[in-house]
Design a protein that fits this description.
The chain has 252 residues and is an alpha/beta fold. Helix 2 packs parallel to helix 3. The protein is globular, with a radius of gyration of 20 Å.
């Protein structure tokens, strides 16, 4: 039996937070934390490690929910659903910059919330990476000693490494940046959640901690996939969505 989805609620209205909690628990979800402010949300995120976060844009004091989400994503990248009674365009545009999974305007029905949660998690695991529009084919990424220019088409895959990311380039891409070094992963001082929005549509999120470039996918077996010389274990439940995403000639 699958473990229930763990949800963190960031809401300064105690009655609203309790009502959401009770209804979601009845729907089969686990509420792993509740927070009413920026500080409480950061603490709960670190302690509970949720799978998804519900965030009210207007919180008790400052920073608001949008600023809170930006900090939460530095701790762990998970789907975000905003709860809001604010319809101002400026607020909406600020919230969009954090790439949320959904917006729900108060008052909302529990059935609607549950549907948005399920859709957010489905898209998250289906690896739907769209990339921000108009991005160049390269980007400068931070390392411990400065910045490197990375051509996106040279990225084979990216792995989460706690608060950082491990970047695996083609050998030619690596030696363009580091001509004298032996080929290896490059440690980027940016977590995977911050990096993904700058990738291109050809990238696919295989799991919470791994994004692959489908252009370099050479072989798929029952539990493994191969990208160049790299052998990668396919997480449980991730093989079928991957097969569905790529073009496969089926025998029947």
């Amino acid at each position: 039996m699958d473990a229930p989805l763990r949800i963190l609620i960031v809401e300064d209205d105690l009655f609203m937070a309790t009502d959401i909690e009770e209804n979601l628990v009845r729907s089969g979800y686990e509420i792993c934390g509740k927070a009413h402010s920026y500080e409480a949300a950061i603490k709960s995120m670190k302690q509970s490690q949720p799978d998804l976060v519900l965030v009210d844009i207007v919180l008790d004091g400052l920073p608001d929910g949008i600023a809170t989400v930006k900090e939460l994503m530095r701790i762990k990248w998970v789907p975000i659903i905003y709860l809001t009674g604010n319809s101002e365009e400026e607020t909406f545009n600020r919230a969009k910059s954090t790439f949320p999974a959904a917006f729900l305007h108060k008052p909302f029905r529990v059935r609607e919330l549950a549907a948005q949660i399920d859709l957010a998690m489905h898209n998250f695991y289906a690896g739907n990476i769209s990339g921000a529009p108009g991005l160049p084919d390269h980007t400068f990424l931070p390392t411990g000693s400065g910045y490197i220019r990375v051509v996106k088409s040279e990225i084979q895959f990216v792995k989460a490494d706690r608060g950082n990311s491990e970047l695996f380039l083609t050998k030619s891409g690596f030696h363009r940046i580091y001509p004298a070094k032996p080929y290896q992963a490059i440690n980027i001082s940016l977590n995977l959640g911050k990096l993904v929005p700058y990738l291109s549509p050809g990238f696919y999120q295989l799991s919470r901690s791994l994004v692959i470039n489908l252009d370099y996918l050479d072989r798929i077996e029952s539990n493994q996939l191969y990208i160049g010389s790299h052998e990668i274990t396919i997480p449980d439940g991730a093989r079928k969505p991957l097969i569905d995403r790529i073009q496969v000639v089926r025998t029947r």
